[in-house]
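Consortium newsletter contribution from the modelling node. Members have asked for a concrete example of what our holo predictions look like. Here is one, prepared for the calcium ion complex that several groups have been discussing at recent meetings.
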Amino acid sequence: MESNRRNLAGVLFVGSIILIDGFILVEQDAAPEDMVWIEPGTFTMGSDRGMPDERPARPVEMSGFWIDTHEVTNTEFQTFIEDTDYITEAERYGDSLVFSKVAASSLQELVPLSWWKLVGDADWRHPEGPQDSISAKQDHPVVQVSYADALAYCNWLDKTLPTEAQFEFAARGGKEGNQYSWGNQPITHEHAHTNHWQGEFPLHNDNEDGFESTAPVGSFPANDFGLYDISGNVWEWVSDWYHPRSYELDSNRNPTGVKREDSFDPNEPGLAKRSIRGGSFLCSENYCRGFRVSARMPADPATATNHTGFRCVNPNRSNSIASLWLN
Ligand SMILES: [Ca+2]
Ligand SMILES: [Ca+2]
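And here is the predicted structure:
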């Protein structure tokens, strides 16, 4: 009894104590700041109506995990840099990719991906190049971060990057078979559900949602799990190596993707790529449609761009109720 009292005194952040039939239930107030707990469960991952790499839709069993409510912001990333003196890959390479509008009168004239420019001294402090700054973007998602940069930030907080399955499970918000994280309502201009591209990408951005580039995190409604910008704003790094047939090859319980040596992008064979999820401010109805909840995209893990960021998960921190026998 005495030792139990000492154990109780050692439990930090006690939310409530309930006595039931000789057991004392100690519910820990374990909610980390700006994270939500995703309850374990089974969901249908992928879509048979989407792109070929989203098939086959299949039931996947998931353990519970904590996930950040929002994309990691410039302010948060700056705290990490100040604490660790970490230097991002774009800073070490001296350049990174920046979206640039292209002059053309029609989509047919365009060379695919010609809107990406390798810009010297573009990095997380200067997302669009040396003339740009984050001074007015403190609450915007950090961009120009590689996969390793994103993982280093998460690890600094004893977190990690989500798997594709964790990202999609969380993005669906408990809804089965929907096309978007908010449901099946079309992505309209009148009531934008997310920061995306309105108009004909990459020629004309009608900018009807008010944000031509990144938006402050949380500018659009959260999904039913309380997650902001889980669709749109910036693409987010996830931990799976990309393969277009992952869903045929992977486990149906807490899948983690294929091995690095099995990663395959048909458009760039020979370069192992990670997946990114959720779409960005560059996704439009006429082009990538990456804001669909099942959409996947391969990305070179060493390449930083001004439309890719991340959020972290913590699958190891429990949300359980501890019990102690009093007798
Ligand atoms: Ca927009
Ligand atoms: Ca996002």
